[in-house]
Design a protein that fits this description.
Length: 200
């Protein structure tokens, strides 16, 4: 699993709208699931965007964890997309690194269902590294679910006892981040735009 490359859309070092507590979030680039009303269309192209080694992604995580403010300790990593399971080797390599070198929690979003993931390359191995999986195609015609649930058909799978359902449900649905240079990032699910936006 050395020198694996991940096609990354974006990374946000600090976010509170992508899982419980303060988290570093990584959006994988590329998805072919074609959900109607996809809320992340800019992440769907499968062309190379930002190509990072697993080590380079982990270094960004580690930097964010070391530099966070004492009152806002990073408690976990969120991985979204795009579709993270389109890059199973890179995803597994990254999760192994996080598990092996930190006690950060791991939350993953996928358009695949749990049973579809289990049948994919490295599927079971990847699932063994995840605390919480939010799974299923986004269906814009359905209502929004609570917290992080984009549409009511999607399912929250608590794969370890790290979190309770209430921890996931009470996560803020959206967030506006203004960095010290005045750069504004929207992340989460914005009702008025019906889509998710993010940038690094
Ligand atoms: S899984 Fe996500 S990124 Fe892929 S088409 Fe569906 S909503 Fe869009």
């Amino acid at each position: 699993m050395k020198n694996l490359i991940i096609n990354v859309h974006s990374i946000i070092p600090y976010t509170q709208a992508n899982g419980p507590g303060m988290r570093t979030a990584i959006w994988f680039q590329g998805c072919v699931l074609n959900c109607p009303g996809c809320y992340n269309p800019q992440t769907r192209s499968t062309e190379p965007n930002r190509l990072f080694s697993v080590d380079a992604v982990y270094e960004r995580i580690d930097f964010a964890v070391r530099k966070c403010l004492p009152d806002d300790l990073v408690q976990g990593i969120t991985i979204s997309g795009g579709e993270p399971f389109r890059q199973p080797a890179g995803l597994l390599g990254l999760l192994q690194r996080i598990r092996g070198e930190s006690d950060l929690s791991i939350l993953v979003f996928s358009g695949f269902t749990l049973s579809e993931i289990a049948q994919q390359p490295h599927g079971d191995d990847i699932l063994r590294h995840i605390d919480t999986l939010i799974a299923g195609r986004y269906q814009s015609g359905l209502g929004r679910g609570m917290g992080l649930i984009g549409s009511t058909n999607q399912r929250i799978h608590l794969l370890t006892d790290r979190y309770r359902l209430s921890d996931i449900i009470k996560t803020p649905a959206s967030e506006v981040i203004i960095d010290r240079n005045g750069h504004v990032t929207f992340t989460g699910i914005f009702q008025w735009a019906s889509r998710k936006e993010h940038a690094d």
